[in-house]
Design a protein that fits this description.
InterPro entries: Znf_Ogr/Delta. This protein is mainly β. It has 1 helix and 4 strands, in the order ββββα.
Length: 92
């Protein structure tokens, strides 16, 4: 599977291609991706996940829980804190 997606390479900003993908759960899919820029060649795994409900399903699947969210709420586009940094800060 080779599909073009609108997800730029985090290193060079070039186009990336989905090489393969796997459904991890009802709400998460992992994709193996590769930068199409031969001078960069970065390969990585990304996750696509369902994070909130805008319009509830008319045919809900038992066991699938997606929190209700404000449809006007947007992801905070600031860089999330570094995991190691947040662990070090919280441990005192």
């Amino acid at each position: 599977m080779k599909r073009d997606v609108a997800f730029p390479c985090p290193h060079c900003g070039g186009r990336t291609l989905i090489r393969s993908s796997e459904q991890v759960s009802d709400t998460v899919r992992e994709t193996r991706m590769r930068c199409d820029n031969d001078d960069c060649g970065f390969s990585f795994v990304a996750q696509i996940s369902v994070i909130r409900t805008i319009q509830p399903s008319l045919q809900p699947k038992p066991g699938v829980v997606v929190p209700l969210g404000n449809q006007n709420l947007r992801w905070d586009r600031r860089r999330p804190p570094d995991l190691l940094e947040s662990l070090m800060t919280s441990s005192g």
